[in-house]
Design a protein that fits this description.
With 111 residues, this protein is mainly beta. It is built from no helices and 12 strands.
């Protein structure tokens, strides 16, 4: 589970342990002690009609970004906004795409 909040992420983990006879138990929930690097995250990847971009780096606010196809064609240009941002994918066929900003590029799968 990833919980966005105040430009930091907290990650929680729990294991499901299954015995050979099919019985199972869960471990206690623990929180990761690592802090995520600033930048952006794609929530709900693979995506279908809407891509949720969550920006954690205030330095990206009002900077250019693009959605790039797997063959390098710029499909969409947009401006990064701090926090949660919705990007419509309704007009795009299924495939592999990339979100490119001034700091990094992330792969997006569209179903």
């Amino acid at each position: 589970i990833v919980v966005p909040g105040s430009f930091n992420y907290r990650r929680f983990f729990r294991l499901k342990m299954i015995d050979k006879d099919g019985r199972f138990t869960y471990s206690p929930v623990i929180q990761s002690g690592q802090q995520e690097a600033p930048g952006f995250y794609i929530l709900g990847n693979p995506a279908r009609n809407i891509l949720v971009l969550y920006t954690t780096d205030k330095g990206l606010n009002n900077t250019p970004a693009a959605l790039i196809s797997s063959n390098g064609k710029r499909i969409l240009s947009f401006t990064i906004k701090t926090g949660r941002q919705l990007i419509s994918l309704e007009h795009l066929p299924a495939g592999t795409y990339y979100i490119q900003t001034i700091t990094k590029t992330e792969r997006v799968l569209i179903n």
